[in-house]
Every structure is written in structure tokens, then in C-alpha cells.
């Protein structure tokens, strides 16, 4: 009597992939998990906020004062 094949299998991934090679290959194909994505998003946000806070540092405020001095000098020259 021939063996009948069905679509349903009683084999689970853990039984088939005992050394973890299939799970590793699937991880390489699909890439990062949600946790990795959120971790990278949080890191990127921190870098962005750090860059923005560095841009608003007092060193840039001095540039505004210098610009004001130049404009005042030009105004004095205009009055002459």
C-alpha cells in the first residue's frame, strides 16, 4: 500500500533546525527586528538632538554680536 502525502506536516521548525542555521538565514534575509529598529531610531534621535543643541551653543551667539557690531559701524559710516 503506497504512502499518502498530505499538506499538513507534524514537523516543527525546532525539530528541523537544530543547529539554528535556518533561523540565522531568515534573520539575514529579513534584517533587523522591531527592537533593533526602535533602538536605532532612538540613537538617531539622540544624535539629532545633540547636534541641534550644539548648534544653539553660546559660540554661535557671539557671531550675532559681531554682526551687530559690523552693522553699527556701517551705520556710523553712513551718517558721516
Description:
The protein has about 80 residues and is mostly helical. The chain has one domain. It contains four helices and no strands.
User: Could you say how many structural domains there are in total?
Assistant: 1
Average residue pLDDT: 79
Amount of beta strand: under 5%
What's the story with the biggest beta sheet? none
- Overall morphology: rod-shaped
What series of H and E elements makes up the topology? HHHH
Structural class: mainly alpha
How large is the count of helical segments?
A: 4
List low-pLDDT spans.
none
- Helical residue percent band: over 70%
Radius of gyration of CA atoms, rounded to a whole number: 32 Å
Condensed summary:
The chain is built from four helices and no strands. With 80 residues, the protein is mainly α. The chain has one domain (13-79).
Name some characteristics of this structure.
80 residues, mainly alpha
Task: Spell out the blueprint of helices and strands.
Layout: H1 13-16, H2 21-30, H3 34-55, H4 58-79
Amino acid at each position: 500500500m503506497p504512502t499518502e502525502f498530505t499538506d499538513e506536516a507534524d514537523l516543527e521548525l525546532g525539530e528541523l533546525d537544530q543547529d539554528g542555521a535556518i533561523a540565522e538565514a531568515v534573520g539575514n534575509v529579513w534584517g533587523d527586528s522591531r527592537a533593533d529598529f526602535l533602538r536605532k531610531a532612538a540613537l538617531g534621535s539622540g544624535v539629532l538632538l545633540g547636534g541641534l543643541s550644539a548648534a544653539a551653543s553660546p559660540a554661535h551667539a557671539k557671531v550675532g554680536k559681531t554682526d551687530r557690531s559690523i552693522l553699527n559701524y556701517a551705520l556710523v559710516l553712513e551718517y558721516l
